[in-house]
Amino acid sequence: MKLITAIIHETQLDQVREALVEAGIGRITVSRVSGHGKQRKEEIYRGKKVIPNLNPKMRIEIAVNDQFVDITVDTIIKSAKRSDEGEVGDGKIFIVNLEECIRIRTGERGSAAI
Description:
The protein has helices at 13-22, 69-80; strands spanning 2-9, 29-35, 43-45, 48-50, 55-64, 91-97.
């Protein structure tokens, strides 16, 4: 089992979600986050150029069984890009081992709970 966390541009959320559903990945958790990396976006505030410290992003978390890791990652990569070549700020994907998963309602554990 793996926990896949994707940080994507907020405008790409609907495309990513729809692509995941089409690929058979229907259980996701989404939250609004802020952060910064190489992406720089200048704004004009009261006549001065300002570079905000934190940019709004969307965080998607998906717990998957091992056989679904590649299809999930490939789907996110294809649908999160804002252009054919991609752009700075399109996001990142993190994959970590998931030690245990427990469904609260039934008490199921492991792969069956996902």
